[in-house]
Model the fold of this input.
Amino acid sequence: MYELKTKPATLVIGIGNKGRNDDGLGWNFAAFIEQMRLPKVSIEYRYQLQIEDAYLISQYERIFFADASHKKIEAGFEISQCNLSDQFYFSTHSQSPESILYMANALYQKCPPAFTIAIEGINWDFEYTLTETAKHNLNKAIQEFERVYY
Done:
């Protein structure tokens, strides 16, 4: 089995679709972190998580899943501990961060600390821009990420 020779400590996965307005929040978060060029941080972009991502996350010491949220979040974003969940979706490619973490543990005996970063969005039309509300929430999420996690 292939293993990374120089294992970066942290993986940030931006989830979403930049062509759907605020659904691009996860990708925008990941792109900002990538531009920071933090040592030992890898960035990946996904439209949706898939079963194969369990192997990917098993190669890292810490994981952050960043994604847009449809729900109202008081602060505009929320960073939460990601817990294992054996709720799989075999009829679709889309999986939750919790199920990917569960599969990494079950298949590879790896369960790195993982966090979800939910950033509130308000518009999901077919456009490549973020709303002003989404930009504001993204900036707050990035500031908190930098303050608490780096």
Notes: The longest strand covers residues 62-69. The chain has a mean pLDDT of 91. Residues 10-149 form a domain with the Rossmann fold fold (CATH 3.40.50.1450).
